[in-house]
Amino acid sequence: MATNDKGGVREPNEGDMLPDERAVIAERVDELDELDEDDYLSVEDVADDLGIDLG
Tens of pLDDT along 12-55? Predict the structure, then answer.
């Protein structure tokens, strides 16, 4: 619940709410299962792409 300046409680606007993480993951499970191991990036690959030196 959110409050306004007068201290009253109002219901949150659904547009301001983040999606439920479990629901999002549940929707994507099949897509994630279909990925090949080659589709995943290592921490080193991502750091290199972003120009971050992990050394």
Answer: 677 777 778 788 888 888 887 787 777 788 999 999 999 999 98
**CA–CA gap between residue 45 and residue 32 (Å, rounded):** 19
Strands, E, within 1-55: which ranges? 2-3, 9-10
- Give the three-class secondary structure for 16: helix
Going by their DSSP bridges, the two strands 2-3 and 9-10 should be labelled as antiparallel
Cβ-contact 22, 28 below 8 angstroms:
no
* Paired tokens of 21: 């993480």
